[in-house]
Design goal:
6-stranded mixed sheet, alpha/beta, binds calcium ion, about 50% helix, about 350 residues, 11 strands, 2 domains
């Protein structure tokens, strides 16, 4: 009998799947201050999912900008291993390597659906990793804002002349385009934006879209709200220190990857919902907000200057050219499908209302 019980116990033990039970505690640094949803949702939801999926064995502690005070230093901190993980937007590393900007968004570039297709199925993620190898970091998509609004301006922009001498917060390649149109540009973290706009240190800024923008209060000091051209599908990224990731048990790596993909898709849905709700509320509660599109002459110059900026980098930098070409070739195919599917569906169904 005793032998039988022992045998049974051995069989039960062998039948139990091998589960990693290693206790791991990681820290993740976000560019954003805590609570700034939906930007902060992917790390917060990731930490919860990983905790649940490992029965509390793999804990990720999320630090907002208010803890580490280095909103634009996330890549450095992950590279150096100060934090195992980070959550940010790739175009903040423009000064280190301009190719990183392409993995956030390109002015007049792809929509979120097009960009996700390129990243997951069109070779985009492989190129992104090739770019981040130099930083000893793994990079994964970490959410997408969809089309961003073109920003808040104190005064209406009626011509190219109105842009001359304007001081604006706008990061990435779009900032460079605005600079070529006579705008003095700066990249400023979220926490300082309202104060600088209110004081008149800057005349205009772009942030994200109606949900996040209205909560920041920009409309109180800059009532002209422009439609977007510069960030048609801004992707966020999870960054992970390579050694730390490689040292994880395989099960934890799989859990982390699955959770990153889930929270990334979730953030797009959450932000779309947030924007739609905020847009409806904005029209009702803030009639003083003037929604505008840039005049055609301004948009044309923006497009021309965008092409010059992209061509300039592609001429100097073969890797930039490879990534841009990959994106543009896919976009040319994808845009035909977007047009005949989404665009014509919306246009034809609106026409019969
Ligand atoms: Ca933005």
């Amino acid at each position: 009998m005793k032998k039988l019980i022992t045998l049974l116990l051995i069989v039960i033990f062998m039948a139990t799947p091998a589960m990693a039970e290693k206790k791991i505690r990681w820290k993740l640094a976000m560019t954003w201050p805590s609570g700034l949803t939906p930007l902060t949702s992917p790390p917060a939801k990731l930490a919860k999912m990983v905790d649940d999926m490992t029965n509390g064995n793999f804990i990720i502690v999320v630090d907002g900008e208010e803890s580490h005070k280095s909103a634009l230093g996330i890549l450095d901190m992950v590279e150096e291993g100060v934090y195992e993980m980070g959550h940010s937007a790739s175009y903040y590393w423009k000064g280190k390597d301009v190719t990183t900007t392409i993995f956030t968004t390109v002015p007049f570039g792809m929509t979120a659906a097009e960009q996700n297709s390129w990243l997951y199925y069109g070779g985009g993620m492989e190129l992104m990793q090739e770019c981040y190898n130099q930083f000893n970091v793994y990079a994964f998509p970490g959410g997408n804002t969809g089309v961003q609004m073109g920003g808040w301006f104190r005064k209406e922009i009626t011509s190219l002349k109105d842009l001359q001498g304007l001081k604006m917060r706008i990061p990435g390649l779009a900032g460079e385009v605005f600079a070529r149109l006579g705008v003095s540009i700066a990249n400023i973290p979220a926490g300082e934006l309202y104060t600088l706009l209110d004081r008149g240190t800057i005349d205009a800024l772009e942030w994200v879209g109606p949900g996040m923008d209205i909560r920041m209060g920009f409309h109180k000091v800059a009532p002209y709200y422009y439609t977007g051209w510069h960030e048609p599908a801004s992707d966020l990224q999870f960054l992970i220190n390579k050694q730390q990731y490689d040292n994880l048990p395989k099960e934890y790596q799989a859990i982390l990857k699955a959770a990153m993909k889930a929270v990334s898709a979730d953030m797009y849905a959450e932000n779309f919902y947030d924007s739609a709700e905020a847009w409806a509320k904005m029209k009702k509660d803030y009639p003083g907000i003037q929604v505008k599109s840039f005049p055609e002459e301004v948009l044309k110059r923006m497009k021309e200057e965008t092409e010059k900026v992209l061509d300039g980098y592609a001429d100097q930098n073969p890797f930039f050219k490879r990534v841009l070409t990959s994106q543009q070739e896919f976009m040319n195919k994808a845009r035909e499908w977007t047009t005949i599917s989404d665009y014509y569906y919306i246009e034809t169904s609106a026409a019969i209302q």
